[in-house]
Write a structure and sequence with these properties.
Radius of gyration: 18 Å
Number of strands: 4
Bound molecules: FE2/S2 (inorganic) cluster
Largest sheet: 4 strands, mixed
Shape: elongated
Number of helices: 7
CATH topology of the largest domain: Glutaredoxin
Length: 158
Amino acid sequence: MNGIQHLIPEFEQWKRRYPAGFEGSLTIPCLRRIQEERGYIADSDIDELVAYLGVPRTQVDEVLGFYTQFTREPLGRYHLQVCHNVSCALRGAEGLVRYLCGRLGIQPGETTPDGRFTLSTVECLASCGTAPMMMVNDAYHENLTPAVVDALLEELSR
Ligand code: FES
């Protein structure tokens, strides 16, 4: 993906839904679309989006800093996001993270050398009743145990 110019017609469609002067409200949907295309948000994407929306760069930086679903770096093919908030922690999330670190040979925030897996820890993903859980890309995996994780990693390694 070279720049965001090819996405501008799509953004223009969305812009029509907002009253004049509320272009900043497009920040999140535009960032989501850019990440969907590139896999992450590059510095040049931010520059182009700021110019397009006419918003302060700090507004885009604040969104990127607050919402953990946005990433500034390329991720592995599978992004494992393990919830380590209260319910998941009470049901073994930290042990699950240690287990994944051992299986994958990486720490949270890292990607395996083959580019297949990125491991992250995140706050509550609103699936507390089926803790411990993690997201793999857009899918929830719940009631995790080492055996369930082993089967999942095997499936994702094919
Ligand atoms: S605490 Fe893990 S999903 Fe809510």
